[in-house]
Task: inverse folding
């Protein structure tokens, strides 16, 4: 497999991640319900949407270890990403305060911590590091109450002081450095390894075993949730897989999903999302604008869940065609602007 093919599949993975993020943001915006739902539809949306950010951050870590950018260039990129986070917040005032940290500010922090990540990758075994991290997260989730913040979206997007912003950046925000750094470190491990046949994800017994363990965990907890009438997975109220804050179950389940998607796209050569992957940052930033302008559409049209689902599917799919057209105008993308500013 050539280097070009390897990068093509990374683009496709990145594109899939952004498309899933568009889907989950759209589903959250055009939601005809006012209460927590535990239907299969809600689980499908939560499951796929919950994999979006882990996949995005893991691929970012893969690219981080591959990058040969100078410290100056890295610093410029980090600054731009943090600035873009503010732009996203300003275009989505119904969701975020102006200086609410998010996934782009997380990327900025990860860029600044690149030397630390490179050091971890070069000196620590992935399996040992991941196991220690899981135990650490479990202890925090179960014995250190509210260290990662409480299950309240409004508090997580509030940025009323410098102390709150710093807290959200590190521990209590939507995508805090801890524990989300783990996905970037795993991606960096994969990016630093040389696998047989030039594969970006090794297809060996270890990978398959990790996927099987993760699937078994998800299946057993789903059965337990169903038998005890609890919510299995949810952004803030999941008893087993919880997104805000990210608990142990979510980290295990989402990493399993990342490996499955990665293996499918790699082995089946699925390049459908490659175009989106090339301009993933551009799409991530601008997809909020239409959602903000039409954030109350489901109430104005009195949509049923089926009508809302169709709207989500149409809006999400539309970005595939958008990317197909926009890739002919690369000079208009945020990616090109960052490359130009950071190369000077």
Result:
């Amino acid at each position: 497999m050539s280097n070009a093919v390897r990068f093509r599949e990374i683009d496709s993975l990145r594109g899939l991640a952004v498309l899933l993020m568009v889907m989950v943001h759209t589903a959250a915006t055009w939601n005809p319900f006012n209460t927590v739902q535990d239907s299969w539809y809600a689980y499908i949306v939560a499951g796929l949407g919950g994999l979006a950010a882990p996949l995005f951050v893991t691929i970012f870590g893969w690219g981080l270890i591959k990058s040969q950018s100078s410290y100056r260039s890295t610093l410029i990129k980090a600054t731009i990403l943090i600035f873009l986070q503010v732009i996203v917040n300003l275009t989505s005032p119904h969701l975020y305060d102006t200086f609410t940290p998010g996934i782009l500010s997380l990327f900025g922090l990860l860029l600044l911590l690149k030397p630390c990540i490179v050091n971890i990758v070069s000196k620590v075994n992935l399996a040992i590091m991941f196991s220690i991290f899981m135990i650490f997260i479990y202890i925090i989730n179960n014995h250190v109450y509210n260290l990662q913040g409480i299950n309240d979206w409004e508090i997580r997007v509030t940025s009323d002081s410098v102390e709150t912003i710093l807290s959200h950046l590190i521990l209590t925000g939507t995508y805090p450095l801890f524990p989300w750094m783990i996905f970037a470190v795993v991606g960096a491990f994969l990016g630093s390894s040389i696998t047989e046949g030039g594969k970006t994800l090794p297809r060996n017994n270890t990978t398959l075993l990790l996927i099987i363990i993760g699937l078994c965990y998800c299946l057993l907890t789903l059965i337990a949730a169903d038998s005890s009438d609890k919510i299995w997975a949810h952004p803030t109220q999941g008893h087993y897989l919880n997104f805000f804050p990210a608990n142990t179950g979510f980290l295990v389940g989402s990493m399993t999903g990342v490996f499955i998607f990665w293996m499918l796209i790699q082995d089946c050569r699925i390049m459908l999302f490659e175009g989106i992957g090339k301009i993933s940052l551009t799409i991530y930033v601008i997809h909020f604008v239409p959602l903000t302008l039409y954030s109350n559409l489901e109430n104005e049209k009195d949509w049923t869940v089926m009508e809302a689902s169709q709207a989500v599917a149409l809006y999400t799919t539309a970005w595939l065609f958008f990317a197909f057209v926009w890739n002919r105008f690369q000079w208009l993308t945020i990616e090109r602007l960052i490359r130009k500013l950071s190369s000077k």
User: Anything to note?
Assistant: Residues 3-342 form one domain. Residues 10 and 59 are 7 Å apart (CA to CA). The two ends are 33 Å apart (CA to CA). Confidence is low (pLDDT under 50) at residues 1-6.
